[in-house]
């Protein structure tokens, strides 16, 4: 094992890193300072022309694709003087609304009349249908009611489907109250017609 071999490798690696790092540092320094123009590759006559006092007094003119962030005041003023000369059509609507119709002589009489009284729509009908009943001695009368495929057995005072209260069961009809809509409906005691 040689004693000086490791130190030589470290020195060579350090030299290579310095050769790469120095040009990179110079290059990044020139672009990081925007006030200092990059004049390292330009001839002396061009540098002297760029730093003339006449150019510093007037507004900076943007050339090509330069990254100069200064405002172009004459261009802004010219843009403010332009007036919109578009048509009268509203570009945000598909079609204009038609003009309101002119009321006729007969319509003026209707305007003076009071508005009609608002009547709420009638409550929906109760969907329960009579299916049968039971009347045994000593027991309260029971009604069999059907809604779709469901059959319910109820006595007076019970609530069916958490909505319909059986108010009264007689020999001819059943009085049912819709608790949600607060309306009552009678169901006649007739058997449903067999279909099929």
Describe the structure.
- The chain is of the alpha+beta class and 196 residues long.
- Among the domains are: 1-34; 129-188, SH3 type barrels (Roll), CATH 2.30.30.
- Helix content is 29%, strand content 19%.
- It contains 5 helices and 7 strands, in the order αααααβββββββ.
- The protein has helices at 5-32, 44-50, 53-57, 73-80, 105-112; strands at residues 129-134, 142-147, 150-154, 159-160, 164-169, 173-178, 183-188.
- The strands form 2 sheets. The chain has a 4-stranded antiparallel sheet, with no helix packed on it. The chain has a 3-stranded antiparallel sheet with strand order 1-2-3, with no helix packed on it.
- The longest helix has 28 residues, at 5-32.
- The radius of gyration is 48 Å and the shape is elongated.
- It starts with a helix and ends in an 8-residue tail after the last strand.
Overall residue-averaged pLDDT value: 76
**Secondary structural class:** alpha+beta
The general outline is elongated
Q: What's the level 1 CATH class of the domain at 129-188?
A: Mainly Beta
**What is the CATH fold-level name of the domain at 129-188?**
SH3 type barrels
| Poorly predicted tracts of residues | 36-40, 42-49, 51-56
Rg result:
48 Å
Instruction: Identify the quaternary structure here.
Output: single chain
Number of strands: 7
Beta-strand share of residues: 15-25%
Tally of contiguous helical segments: 5
Strand neighbour order, sheet with most strands: 4-5-6-7
Helix proportion range: 25-40%
**CATH architecture identity of the domain at 129-188:** Roll
- How far apart are the first and last residues' alpha carbons, in Å? 108 Å
């Amino acid at each position: 094992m040689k004693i000086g071999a490791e130190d030589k490798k470290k020195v060579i690696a350090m030299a290579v890193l310095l050769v790469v790092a120095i040009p990179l540092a110079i290059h990044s320094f020139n672009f990081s300072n925007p006030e200092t123009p990059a004049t390292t590759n330009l001839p002396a006559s061009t540098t002297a022309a760029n730093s003339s006092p006449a150019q510093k007094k007037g507004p900076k003119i943007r050339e090509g694709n330069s990254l100069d962030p200064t405002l172009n005041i004459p261009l802004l003023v010219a843009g403010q003087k332009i007036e919109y000369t578009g048509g009268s059509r509203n570009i945000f609507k598909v079609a204009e609304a038609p003009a309101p119709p002119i009321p006729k002589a007969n319509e003026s009489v209707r305007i003076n009349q009071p508005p009609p009284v608002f009547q709420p729509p009638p409550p929906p009908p109760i969907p329960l249908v009579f299916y049968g009943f039971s009347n045994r001695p000593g027991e309260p009368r029971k009604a069999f009611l059907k809604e779709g495929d469901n059959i319910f057995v109820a006595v007076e005072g019970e609530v069916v489907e958490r909505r319909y209260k059986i108010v009264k069961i007689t020999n001819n009809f059943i009085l049912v109250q819709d608790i949600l809509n607060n309306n009552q409906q009678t169901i006649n005691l007739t058997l449903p017609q067999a279909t099929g």
